[in-house]
Specification:
The protein is of the alpha+beta class and 165 residues long. Helices cover 18% and strands 40% of the residues. The chain contains 2 helices and 9 strands; from the N terminus they run E-E-H-E-E-E-H-E-E-E-E. The strands form 3 sheets. Strands 4, 5, 6, 7 and 8 form a 5-stranded antiparallel β-sheet that branches. A two-stranded antiparallel ribbon has the order 1-2. 27% of the residues are buried.
Length: 165
Amino acid sequence: MAILSLFLNTGRLASPIGADKFNTLVALKNTIGQLEAGGMDTMTLRTDVTPVAASGTLTVDGANGTVGGVINGVTITVSAGSDDDVVVAANIAAAINASVDALVSGVVTATSAAGATTTGVVTVSAVVKGKAGNAITLAASGTGITAGGARLTSGSNGTSTTFTY
């Protein structure tokens, strides 16, 4: 699915056009009217195509006790008894996906898989694609679990094409 983001630069104030379709159309119509009337010199439209979601990992290796992750300051944990690390990772991913906290639900999703040897890996991904996901914090909680970084990474707005009128 391609996403079209419009960014207007009137020479005075640069502002993105939001998701509200009616107000977006009104803003675009007014801007084009100003351009035609000579009220501004140029109009620039930028399209962003194929954005990428930011992601990060929690690696479970020798988990013991209460373990999990801290996402956007929200701690989500599971109990790691005698379960193997792949099962613990699956449980953590399920707990993240089941969270009803507004800082997690609708913000990230999680999947799990077997990592190298017998470790379990939880991949946490931003729901909204783009650079904004790089601001989501991630930390490990408990013994035998590590976070791949302090924040999700690699979120990208995709390729941009700019048209100037």
